[in-house]
Amino acid sequence: MPPVSVIEASPPLISPPMTEPEVPTNYVEWVVKNQKPLPPISWSNWWNELNRLTLAILTITPAISIYGAFNVKLCRETAVLSVVYYFITGLGITAGYHRLWSHRSYNASKPLQYFLAMAGAGAVQGSIRWWCRGHRAHHRYTDTELDPYDANKGFLWSHVGWMIVKPRRKPGTADVSDLTKDPVVRWQHCWYVYLILAMGFLLPTVVAGLGWSDWRGGFFFAGAARLCFVHHSTFCVNSLAHWLGEKPFDDKHTPRDHVITALVTVGEGYHNFHHQFPMDYRNAIKWYQYDPTKWFIWACHKAGLASHLKTFPDNEVRKGQLTMQLKHLRETQEKLTFAPDVNELPVISWESFQKQSVTRPLILIAGFIHDVSSFVDEHPGGRHYIAKYIGKDATTAFFGGVYDHSNAAHNWLSMMRVGVLHGGMQHGLDDKSVPPSQRLRIAQYKEIMAGNGSSTSWTDEEGIL
């Protein structure tokens, strides 16, 4: 076969990535710069800036509850129904709207999907599609102008303000194409108005009425009061979970972990973990942490109603914890004073050391000259043990010749260094020249790359090693 001079190019195995010129690299910055927000709210325009439908729901419902509390007797059966239905409708939001549809953290069978869709409608917080669109934008643009419930605008704003007042900007773009194709989501969206009336008020009223003839109690307590509690319970995921607690996985943003938030949000209180690992079906990773939503999903899995429960690899979770632990250690380290830098100490000859020891209590240990004037009278073994080594080499005595000194003794001794003996570092004492407090240091990677052991802080973005 004759040689071929030109080789025909074969099609690439991987197509080149499609570019989106209409989406700038820094989308948030571009939107803030180029899209004009609504005018600020003032005394002259506040009435026109209210979302009247949401305001009515959030004010009329508690008003009905208060009226019922003063005029209707609460019987034991209705009280139990109210609590049970609170958890059912709460799970419709936490296990359904949030963990199933917003984050796809597990797969649910059709019966479970319809149950969660109806229970979520009973919480009266918008349809699945509307709720998830805002929540996905919240995760994508957390703590920015495009976050619909930006915690930086204050507790009240992230709790209810963003619903009562028309948003100054539209939430950032979020892909909900999967929800648009979901038949259960489409069914709920189509029948949503009827579902909220039936599940929010009619069902609890009928159950209490037919069950123990408490029609009024069913409406006022299991209906209105329960709905009021569910509202503010799940609203706390946007407000309290960004305000109360600690940040054990990441401190770049506002989400926090706290057991109180978990108690009032049906288990959504470990929010710092959730924002780091949003597709994990759990909010609480430890067995003793309160997360009934996780337990419900797990129970559904055991019953064959849920599958493919997603969990982040434990190794990656622990990396997040380690990162923050190292950062806290770094902050502690920066507040402490350590032994002076060896390179900054003067080099002193043996003759000079002995000469100066006549007027100063200087002792040589491991090649370093120490001024022990502040410690002579404090030495636990007595002043005479220190005095007899002034002007001499006490290396053997200090490193176990008489007493095996503690880490505290080594650290304190290093603070008394005033010089380095010329040629005085003994063979095999390299490790002992470093005090215990400095053998393990938290250093950022640029410090390591530069060979710099200094504790001078660089920017947080540089990471910690």
Structure description:
Strand 4 and strand 5 (368-371) form a beta hairpin. The chain folds into two domains: 27-312, no CATH class; 342-434, Flavocytochrome B2, Chain A, domain 1. The chain has 19 helices and six strands. The chain has helices at residues 27-34, 52-71, 76-102, 110-122, 128-140, 155-164, 177-181, 183-190, 192-212, 215-235, 259-264, 271-276, 292-302, 314-334, 350-356, 383-387, 395-398, 407-414, 445-449, and strands at residues 107-108, 306-307, 347-348, 362-365, 368-371, 417-421. Helix 3 crosses helix 5 and helix 4 packs across helix 9 (192-212). With 465 residues, it is mainly α. The strands form two sheets. A four-stranded mixed β-sheet has the order 3-6-5-4. It has a two-stranded antiparallel sheet with strand order 1-2. The longest helix has 27 residues, at 76-102.
| Class from secondary-structure proportions | mainly alpha
Strand order of the largest sheet: 3-6-5-4
Number of strands: 6
Global shape: elongated
Order of helices and strands: HHHEHHHHHHHHHHEHEHEEHHHEH
Number of contiguous helices: 19
Could you give the distance between the termini? 60 Å
Q: Helix fraction?
A: 40-55%
CA gyration radius, whole angstroms? 33 Å
Mean pLDDT: 88
Count of distinct structural domains: 2
Give start-end ranges of low-pLDDT stretches. Answer: 1-21, 453-465
User: What is the percentage of strand-forming residues?
Assistant: under 5%
Tell me about the largest β-sheet.
4 strands, mixed
